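Predict structure. Chain length: 399.
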Amino acid sequence: MKPESIPQTRETLLEQLRALPRVVWVLFAGLFIHRFGTFVIPFLTLFLKDTGYKTSEIAWVFAALAFGGVGAMILGGRLSDLIGRKNTMAVSLFGGAVSMLMMWQADSFPAYLLSGFLVGITHGMYHPASNSLLIDVVPESRRVTAFAVVRWAVNLGFACGMATGGFLAEKSYSILFVGDAITSACFAVIALLWLPHGVKTSKAKSRWSEAIKDMLGNRAFLTFFFANLFAVVTFFQWGSSVARLITDLGYEKTVYGWLMAANGVAIALFEIPISQVAQRRSPNRVIALGFLLCGVGIWLNGFALTWVGIAIAMVAFTLGEMISMPVSGAYVASLSPTLMRGRYSAAVGLTWNLGQAVAPGLGLLLYESYTESVWWGCLAIGCIAALLMHFSVPKPARE
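Prediction complete.
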């Protein structure tokens, strides 16, 4: 394999889809159900604001979620390599259902901080296990397609869930919490019944110290890690500063829900065909273009005077997401040693948790003090992430 490109294929899209292992479609079903019920986090800013909490307090709740997510990646990365992907997913998802019900019953700021941390640590643990299982069972030449299919389920479920969630939020926030918990439990059952354990390793070889040592010597992975860390800041603005922009323009929560749902619908319709074109290009350059468009998408919100302007910004951002995300999954897989896939995937997941710890709260604070700094700052961040990836030199994993 040439290190600068993902393996090529002459098969048609339909042939590639038919050739994917059964596990991919089981993950598809489970992730669709789970993401359909991911009601709470996208509406958490609006929920806490309606409950009477200040912007600074909301930022701390998001930070608690993010710190829990950091723990989830550390724990989930090791467990997925040690006890298997299926068991890790089941523990995560059942725990996620319980923690979401705890957040539903929270009645004070400290209670929201504690439940937020628990939601973060339980909801995030399944990600490295799920990604690693996908890499375990899918041949390298089909991984971009497999990641696109799984993201198809995630975003189709998200689109349907956001449209439903916006309606339910107007009726009762309690339905959002209960629905989120039920769908997490459903995915846990699916994982236990129909998913394999995947690759395992010994207790000694599953330690983080071994993986970190390998990562520090993997320049291409380190470059991607920091580029992704910059890029994820733009993703979290949709749930914080852009959500505030929509309500400040005078629109109801249902408008926010429909705009976010449009992102999922577009990905469900176009991401798989786009991924077929993207996988024939240099992966680092493709990811660079996607990260740049994500920054541009957030920047365009600075010119929005109505929901139409926000929708245009969403189109640019969604295009960047569709270009970069499926290729990113396959790209990281090509850099990850087989017995360290869980921890490599978890390390990438840490970029999302670290971004969540900073981006939503910082975005809200900047929005309230100097709104334009949010939009221009995200454009600069997207450019930095793109430049890092553009000049990166990918190399295959060292086993």
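Summary: Residues 1-9 have pLDDT under 50 and may be disordered.
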